[in-house]
Design brief:
Radius of gyration: 23 Å
Strand order of the largest sheet: 1-2-6-3-7-15-8-13
Structural class: alpha/beta
Shape: elongated
Order of helices and strands: HHHEEEEEHEHHEEEHEEHEHEEHEEEHHH
Number of helices: 13
Helix content: 40-55%
Largest sheet: 8 strands, mixed
Length: 430
Amino acid sequence: MTREEVIQLSDSAIKSQAEHIISIGKELWKNPETGYKETASSALLVSELEKLGFKVKTGLAITGFRADLDTGKPGPTIAVMGEFDALIIPSHPEAVNGVVHSCGHNTSAAGLIGTAIGLKAAVESGELCGKIAFIGTPAEEGIELEYRQNLVDEGKIKFVAGKAQLIRERVLDDVDLAYMHHASSRFGFNDHNGSVCKKIIFTGKSCHAASPQNGINALNAMNLALHAIALLRESYSNSSFVRFHGIVSDGGQSVNILPDHIEMDYMLRAETVEKLVEVHERFDNAVTHAAAAAECGCEIKTMHYSMPLYDDMDLGAAMRDVVAELYPGKNFDFNNFFMASCTDMGDVATVMPAVHGYVPGQIGTSHGKDYFIEDYESACVSPALINARLAIDLLINGAEKGRKIAAKKADMMSIDEYIRIIDGISGFDK
């Protein structure tokens, strides 16, 4: 059977189920859940895979899952990934209890199911080699740090981001290369910053606000720390990528009491591991000394969120070729600019060749109250068609193309070394 005939099997299976694939994306939009809480979303997606005949391993990184499709012939194992967590944006008109899919992960998950539909049909041709792992990856968004820190304290996770946790749980040990698609306004892929999250706790001495001399105001430590952080930004004024941003997650409870406990959540971003470590150390130095100047205690809990993402160019070129074939004349952003945002796909790309692709379909501001999926067919069905056709190209003809790209993994950071480094950043090695 020719490549074109195998692709026809896959495309036909996906297109025949297009409305169902779209309905999954819409169902997830109507029932959004944040990271490590996506129990209903995970159950829906697992059920869809089971209906296709897959045996699904669940409970990975709490709400993640994996289903394998084995061709029965030796070859590389490729992972197709899909995200399904949402954001907290209470001002969004379609938020449910303040939660909404304002990053389009509902479509990423729907595309994963569509990919499984297509590749199940393609594998029946007998022309493919190797294995495909369909992996649902939870908790991509770096939010609700207190909740996630509690999960760490309870021993349920070590890393706050889902893909990093999956790597730590050794879910990807046998995977040779990976890719996924994310809703956007364009086709393509781009490299991204890495980041760490901070939970900062200032402690003072409470007292009646009418007699402030009897206490130590933890808000003073926070104010000095905010100024110190703002001044530290000057040191990176020539950087297009270093970012510090945060919120006051606990600013006190009573206006007539000097607060003795104040909390802030912060995220730091940078384009290399070395720069991220430098920023992390300087940030902690500024904050702790500001707290000391205010005569307050200070505890900083650092949580790894994501490694910088450097997409594999050969895998990206294969993705570009598939898009050009499927959508002639459409522009494909071949990593033309570096993005200051972050994704935990960077962790996957640290230990194996990987690409974080984009497909059009969204409108409005990413992570904003005006974000919507305008074209569900493009956002849900296009990734399925691209993912499946890319897998076919990687695994057909003795998996020649897939083997060549997968061979790069041997020269990349090992998973053991990755875990050692991230444990160090997170303080688990102390």
